[in-house]
């Protein structure tokens, strides 16, 4: 996409929380988006949970989240705040919602701003 001002080539740039394209010749820039959408959050989040290993719904939710079988998931739940996954925001959000849906508590590190 050439510059609208002078027709020269434009290159992508990132500045703080802003990204866009900037003309290499005249410097005119167009901001394409801000870092406020979950899709471009590249943070690797750690998701830990608290649940009851005697509760089948909790164990099943953990099994679904980790891809483990029921027994492995139950053993995992017997640990103190087990680490269920490390992943990007969308993935973490999906798992977190599935855990909250069965009444479990979650901790996400670093601070998770996608609700
Ligand atoms: Zn230009």
Give me a quick take on this structure.
By secondary structure, the protein is an alpha+beta fold. The protein has two domains: 10-36, no CATH class; 40-109, Ribosomal protein L7/L12, C-terminal domain/Adaptor protein ClpS (Ribosomal Protein L30, Chain: A, 2-Layer Sandwich), CATH 3.30.1390.10.
Description of the structure:
With 115 residues, the protein is α+β, with helices and mostly antiparallel strands. The protein folds into two domains: 10-36, no CATH class; 40-109, Ribosomal Protein L30, Chain: A, CATH 3.30.1390.10. The protein is 28% helix and 30% strand. The chain contains three helices and six strands; from the N terminus they run ββββααβαβ. It has helices at 56-66, 70-77, 89-101, and strands at residues 10-15, 18-23, 29-34, 45-50, 83-87, 105-109. The strands form two sheets. The chain has a three-stranded antiparallel β-sheet, with no helix packed on it. α1 (56-66) crosses α2. The longest helix is centred in the C-terminal third of the chain and has 13 residues, at 89-101. The radius of gyration is 21 Å and the shape is rod-shaped. The model has no long low-confidence stretch (mean pLDDT 90). Bound molecules: zinc ion. Zinc ion is lined by residues 3, 5-6, 8, 23, 25-26, 28.
- Total separate domains: 2
Mean pLDDT: 90
By secondary-structure content and strand pairing, the structural class works out as alpha+beta
- The spatial strand order of the largest sheet comes to 1-2-3
User: Any ligands, ions or cofactors bound here, and which?
Assistant: zinc ion
- What is the CATH architecture term of the largest domain? 2-Layer Sandwich
User: What is the radius of gyration?
Assistant: 21 Å
CATH superfamily of the largest domain: Ribosomal protein L7/L12, C-terminal domain/Adaptor protein ClpS
Apparent shape: rod-shaped
**What is the helix/strand order?**
EEEEHHEHE
What is the percentage of strand-forming residues?
25-35%
Q: Count the helices. How many?
A: 3
Q: Termini distance?
A: 35 Å
CATH class of the largest domain: Alpha Beta
């Amino acid at each position: 996409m050439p510059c609208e001002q002078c027709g020269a080539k434009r290159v992508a740039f990132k500045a703080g929380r802003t990204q866009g394209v900037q003309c290499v010749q005249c410097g005119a820039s167009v901001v394409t988006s801000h870092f406020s959408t979950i899709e471009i959050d590249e943070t690797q989040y750690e998701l830990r949970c608290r649940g009851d290993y005697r509760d089948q719904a909790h164990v099943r939710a953990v099994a679904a989240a980790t891809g483990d079988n029921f027994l492995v998931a139950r053993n995992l739940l017997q640990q103190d705040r087990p680490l269920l996954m490390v992943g990007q925001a969308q993935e973490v959000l999906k798992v977190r919602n599935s855990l909250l849906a069965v009444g479990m508590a979650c901790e996400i590190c670093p601070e998770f701003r996608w609700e």
